[in-house]
Amino acid sequence: MGASASFYMSWCVCINVGLLCVVMVVFWNWRWRGGFAWDGSEAQFSWHPVLMISGLLVLYGFAAVLFRVPWGWSQKKIAWKLVHAGLMLAALVLATVGLYAVFNVHSTLNIPSMYSLHSWVGMSAVVTFAWQWFLGLVGFLLPCSAQRLSHYLKGIHVWTGQAVLLLSLAACISGINEQLFFLFFFFSLPAEALFANMLGILIVAFSSLVFGILSKADWRRPNANTNDEAAPVRRIFSSLNVKENVKEN
Amino acid sequence: MGASASFYMSWCVCINVGLLCVVMVVFWNWRWRGGFAWDGSEAQFSWHPVLMISGLLVLYGFAAVLFRVPWGWSQKKIAWKLVHAGLMLAALVLATVGLYAVFNVHSTLNIPSMYSLHSWVGMSAVVTFAWQWFLGLVGFLLPCSAQRLSHYLKGIHVWTGQAVLLLSLAACISGINEQLFFLFFFFSLPAEALFANMLGILIVAFSSLVFGILSKADWRRPNANTNDEAAPVRRIFSSLNVKENVKEN
After folding, report:
1. In this structure, which of A50, A96, A114, A152 has its CB flanked by the most CB atoms within 10 Å?
2. Is A197–B169 a contact, with Cβ atoms under 8 angstroms apart?
């Protein structure tokens, strides 16, 4: 099987496992946690796991592997960078609303925040992610981004991007584990806990797929196309002009 | 800074952060958890976090990045494969004893096992690791390992190796989080919880360093030396014979 076919197979599995994680966390909170609301109640808390898993883990993972899709290699990298940045921004917005949901519930119910390791790891994930997004915008997209800065930043961008996913994975697993302890402190495994544990295992599987896709050397965008790291937004317009000129000729 | 210098700097940080994790988990259990014993008491439980973090995370991480050390690239790969396999076996033994410690305490104190997501993720890590070690032995070290099988297995070996580290990270963070909930259920952050949370953040930092080192293309063992994937143990002897012959000539 060629590199391209084996990529598409893995990518397809990755996307389906990711979507299944979202479906499962929605079903968990709809079926057992009283559904969804925005009134400071426990039903508002339901938004927290749903938005964190959808944004900080699944959408983030989808956006992370985007440059590996062979279909995009023959196209302008700048277009894929914009889609990457857009998906990441959507992931960041979902995660931020997910954080707000839980802080708001805590303040309404007079529960303190930020004492557990789960909260420390999760907050580190979101703060690092926000910083990463901002640096990515300045380094790779804005017209002011310099070629030299982009080249230097790329290594850090890849490394930090992996760190966010690791933080996110650890936050999701510890969060599910913590919530089940709150609910079933007396060492039992009712249907809800069984279901949420299975969601936890799927979350690790999804993260492994994302890391697997990222690590495979054959699946990287070929070098020929990666020299335009610093292609800032203004180049879109100049490249469009070039195309028009070519047509005219 | 050259690829080699920047590798050694990152490797040095990685090793120190890993060792600090071990020192911190020992100190935590010595200072606040009643120290260490092997009598079915809570002091026996102390061995669980110490052995899992030392074996399944830190030693495992050290062994995972071993082939990236440039110093070893000019040497026979088979020697480094034996060190890699040896360190991994030590890590697996530590993790197995660490599992036994907690199952034994649970059975003495009549506490059920394997109901939490932490236990599911942790057990998946150890079982996947044991299977991975066995497959590695058969595929890359035993005299019977065929070149074709080795080549096919290598991609899976790298992928599964990352999955074990992800499972291990998630198990460590959810385990610390869970233990602190057992101890301080009433939303507080005493010195012990503060210390253990800091350990948790360091654990994520260590994992990020390992993944960062593994992902950097410049730090991979050059292709020229990686064609001997299937170099089985018998080749050590044949290569030694070759050396002796050279000397005699």
Report:
1. A50
2. no
